[in-house]
Amino acid sequence: MIISFDDTDSRSLGMCTTYLGALLMDELKAYGKPAGLPLLIRLNPTIPFKTRGNAAVAIKIETSESEKIKKHVIQRIEELAQMEDENTNPGVVFLENNNDEVKTALTAFFKRAVQHVITIQEAKGLVEKYELDGRGYKNSRGLIGALAGCGAMLEEEWDHTYEYLSYRQKEAWGTQRFVNENSVIRADDATYPHTWDNRDIANNMVVCVPHSPDPVLYGIRGKTPEYISHAASMIEGEVTERHAIYKTNQGTDMHLIPAESISKLQDMESYIIQGFVASNPRTIEGGHTLFLFRDKEGEEMECAAFEPTKNFRELIRKLLPGDHITIYGSVKNKTLNIEKIDVIELTEKYRKVNPLCPKCEKSMKSAGKGQGYRCRHCKTRADKAARSKVEREIKPGIYEVPPCARRHLSMPLIRKEGKDIHPSR
Length: 425
Ligand code: ATP
Known about the structure:
Elements: E1 2-6, H1 17-27, E2 32-34, E3 39-42, E4 55-63, H2 66-80, E5 91-95, H3 100-115, H4 120-129, E6 133-136, H5 142-154, E7 161-168, H6 181-191, E8 195-196, E9 199-200, E10 205-206, E11 216-222, H7 225-233, E12 240-248, E13 256-259, E14 269-277, E15 282-283, E16 289-294, E17 300-305, H8 312-316, E18 324-332, E19 335-345, E20 349-353, E21 365-366, E22 373-374, E23 381-382, E24 386-390, E25 397-400, E26 421-422
Parallel strand pairs: 3-12, 13-14, 17-19, 25-26
Antiparallel strand pairs: 1-4, 1-5, 2-4, 3-4, 5-6, 7-11, 7-12, 8-11, 9-10, 14-16, 14-18, 15-16, 16-17, 18-19, 19-25, 20-24, 21-22, 22-23
Helix pairs in contact: 3-5, 4-5, 6-7
């Protein structure tokens, strides 16, 4: 049986769908045997209804007591979900005896939910068409994530990473977290690059410990369950209630759609698109850095490295019109928010210099405003200034926002192969 659920938490009231997953993984052992790791699925990161990271959770369990499981899960959702919050609309799907048709429909739905925007109507339609045991609360929006979680469980092959999530004791929820920062640094040093995004060295921050009122104490992301468990074993902090290891599509770039031209891009979707820098980058009030991007058809669009991307903006400010680039990022309000940038080829940069005398090869001097240049010794003249090539301040290669600004779904460059990779740590 697959059990998948979503949308149980609230930004102001706390909770976290992954906590419910961890709890159920432990409690459902009374009715069966968990089959494999639970899934933590990140869906379209641009969805405005999300609490934080647009996550859904799915669990698979071998059982002959499915009715008892359903009753238990529903009881837990009703007890723990933050129903008072207008934006919390839980959904749960129980899937048994699925056939090929259901599998095809749900796996396709999973991929669509990661890349596109889906209506509640479409999710309800799927539940009806295949007579699934799906239950939605309030406006039922959580059914979207719950169905996508089922699809992820049914799909055998997708790129994945792992996360070790450690949960606080209930009494501590909402209070200040205690984690020894030095122990995070030691754990990171011992396991990077097999784990990542534990800390942000450039911006001097620990990033694996959240600040919201939810039950998570910390989350360690990495390549295998062994590496993340090893890192977690080194972290010192307050006494925790439980932990869970999730298999996840975090850090995979699954949300990115390859696009040929700007005309194909839509708001609330994320893309990989090649083109050129079309204006000098400028920094506006609030510290956001923007520039125009031009595709091969000549159409232009604004690209942004927002203030939270911190030191990444310094790199963006070094771009020049004509630089050939590929942007990875999502479109919101007709602006492409950069997650990664591949600088394919840099345009040449010149500055104006006084021309050289063709006779003595020394630098000529200005002959006065608007009167060109002349050589005092040889009396030669030149009308125009010469150009001298300037070394560019960036090198070609692929760059990313720092860990403190990373989207859950964005693939950290440390996972990519190749020589021109500039991981941010
Ligand atoms: P939680 O920890 O509760 O899962 P969250 O940040 O993941 O928090 P949710 O509270 O789950 O956010 O809110 C996201 C809502 O958006 C859910 O109801 C989910 O079903 C829905 N949703 C997810 N993906 C899509 C999509 N592609 N199109 C439309 N709605 C979506």
